[in-house]
Amino acid sequence: LTGVTGYLTGVTGDTVPPQVTQEQLRAAEAALALKQDLIDRLKAEAERQRAALETIPVLQAQADIYRADFEAERAAREQLHGQREALQEELNQLRLRLGGDGA
Fold first, then answer.
1. What are the boundaries of the signal sequence (predicted)?
2. Cα distances (Å, whole numbers) of residue 4 to 19, 27, 35, 36
């Protein structure tokens, strides 16, 4: 407290009553506690953000795998559909030929 009083006396050039110094000290300590709380909360948030950033590449890799799997399944379905259409057309042609030969 003596250091604070000396500092305030040096800054203002006047003698500061001890009551004012005590009030200022309490206010400064309260402000310091609030700042420390803010720092702690910001550090915790930074840690949460860092952890989230570490999971992004893993999730991106999963999404890439799912996308590739989906595209492969779609290509296979399209190919099967094309084969089915070709077989259906071939069946229709054979039926026409069989129907024409028997007449």
1. none
2. 12, 13, 20, 21
Q: Contact at 8 Å (CB) between 9 and 15? A: yes
Query: Tell me: the pLDDT tens digits for 46-91?
Result: 999 999 999 999 999 999 999 999 999 999 999 999 999 999 999 9
Three-state secondary structure of the chain: CHHHHHHHHHHHCCCCCHHHHHHHHHHHHHHHHHHHHHHHHHHHHHHHHHHHHHHHHHHHHHHHHHHHHHHHHHHHHHHHHHHHHHHHHHHHHHHHHHHHHHC
Q: Which residue has the tokens 């190919």?
A: 79
Question: What's the pLDDT at 19?
Answer: 80
Assign 99 a pLDDT band (cuts: 50, 70, 90): confident
